[in-house]
Design a protein that fits this description.
This protein is of the alpha+beta class. 20% of the residues lie in helices and 38% in strands. It contains 1 helix and 3 strands. It has a 3-stranded antiparallel beta sheet, with helices on one face. A hairpin with a 2-residue loop joins strand 2 and strand 3 (38-44). The protein is flat and about 35 Å long. The two termini are 21 Å apart. 2% of the residues are buried.
Length: 50
């Protein structure tokens, strides 16, 4: 999932993203700086759910 970095319009707090991922029964696999001004979070299905 891509979101704008802190200070940019549309920014979402990483804690809110993590909470949503956990609530959905998924897991955050990794976070990256995807592009200038953007943050990426890889979301995965936990192994136990497959």
């Amino acid at each position: 999932m891509l979101t704008p970095e802190t200070g940019r319009s549309g920014h979402v707090d990483p804690a809110d993203i993590k909470e949503g991922i956990v609530t959905a029964g998924l897991s955050a696999a990794e976070s990256i700086a995807a592009a200038p001004g953007w943050h990426g979070t890889r979301i995965a299905v936990p192994d136990s759910s497959r």
